[in-house]
Amino acid sequence: MNHDRAAVLIHALPYIQKHRGKTMVVKYGGNAMINEDLKAAVIQDVILMACVGIRTVLVHGGGPEIEAMLSAVGKESRFVQGLRYTDEETMEIVQMVLCGKVNKDITALIQQAGGRAIGLCGIDGAMLRAKRIRETDLGLVGEIAEVDVSVLNSILDSGTIPVVSSVAYGIGEDAGRALNINADTAAAKIAAAMGAEKILLMTDVRGILRDVRDPDSLIKELTRSELEELKKKGVVSKGMIPKADCCCLAMDGGVRKAHIIDGRLPHALLIELFTDEGIGTMIV
User: Fold this and answer.
1) Tens digits of per-residue pLDDT, 76-134?
2) For the domain with range 26-283, which CATH number is right: 3.30.40.10, 3.40.1160.10, 3.30.230.10, 3.90.70.10?
3) Beta bridge pairs of residue 84
């Protein structure tokens, strides 16, 4: 038993050496945020990443929690082109749920498991500065214009994990207002601004499949140009399109690798980072 444990650690050693000191952004969402066992596994993974010297930023969503609170107050959700229409009342709930409950719950879980974390949102230090999207009427939904990484770097330099919720600080016409930001996009923008080595998106599918009806048709690795080709052919479709776009956005900003991994599997992050086989789809 002890020999097997030692073998696992030795197997991981080259990856620990390779990743040490690098910055990685994890987008945490989907079933891994709801299932208690998966939640515990993600928290352990993130703490271990930080312990071996990976500068780890955790960006989270919270769609189900927002949905539950809107239902509780009798407000119906409305989506436009896959994005939540955010009026004043909805924005208050988004800010309350994401920046308050979800963010602090994750931060507390990390600390309960022996890690160090600071929870913050894009308003803190005006870290995520955004303008309202005008091309389509989405209410108080913004697109990030600037990312100030100084707060994140200060937190990482102290050996602490930043936990970021995707509510931004409005600029221009909406100066000082809270704006709702898609969490995938926020993760991509943060990864690019920080010069991250990798962005890892946790989803509820195995990765990019050649045939959506065949879970064994997983594409383990592809280039950015091959990804664009798959989008044109319709292989990448529906809910995978925004994930793919997020990867492209990060890589356009200088991120070296993007990973779409199955957050339904316990310790998916560790399997992706510290094993030969990996998990999910890697875009290079």
Assistant:
1) 888 887 778 999 999 999 999 999 999 999 999 999 999 999 999 999 999 999 999 98
2) 3.40.1160.10
3) 79
Q: Cβ-count burial of 173 within 10 angstroms (0-12 exposed, 13-18 middle, 19+ buried)?
A: exposed
**Cβ pair 198, 25 in contact under 8 A:** yes
Q: What is the DSSP letter of 49?
A: H
Please state the φ and ψ torsions of residue 168, each to the nearest 5 degrees.
Answer: -110, 165
Residues whose CB falls within 8 Å of the CB of residue 117, separated by 6 or more in sequence, listed in order? 58, 106, 107, 110, 111, 160, 161, 162, 163
3-state SS, residue 11:
helix
Report the alpha-carbon distance of residue 16 to residue 13 in Å, rounded.
5
Upper half-sphere CA count for residue 13 (Cβ side, 13 Å): 7
Listed by start position, the domains of the chain span: 26-283
Question: Model's pTM, two decimal places?
Answer: 0.94
What's the gap between Cα 145 and its chain centre?
Answer: 18
CA proximity to 84, closest of 196, 167, 201, 189: 167
Under a CB-based contact definition with an 8 Å cutoff, are residues 240 and 179 in contact?
no
* Per-residue burial over 70-99, b = 16 or more CB atoms within 10 Å of its CB, e = otherwise: beeeeeeeeeeeebbbbeeebbebbbebbb
| Beta carbons within 10 angstroms of residue 22's beta carbon | 15
Contact 244, 227 (CB under 8 A): yes
User: At 214, is the pLDDT very low, low, confident or very high (cuts 50, 70, 90)?
Assistant: confident
CB atoms within 10 A of CB 263: 28
- The tokens for 232 are 């044109």
* Residue from 58, 150, 163, 154 nearest 108 by CA: 163
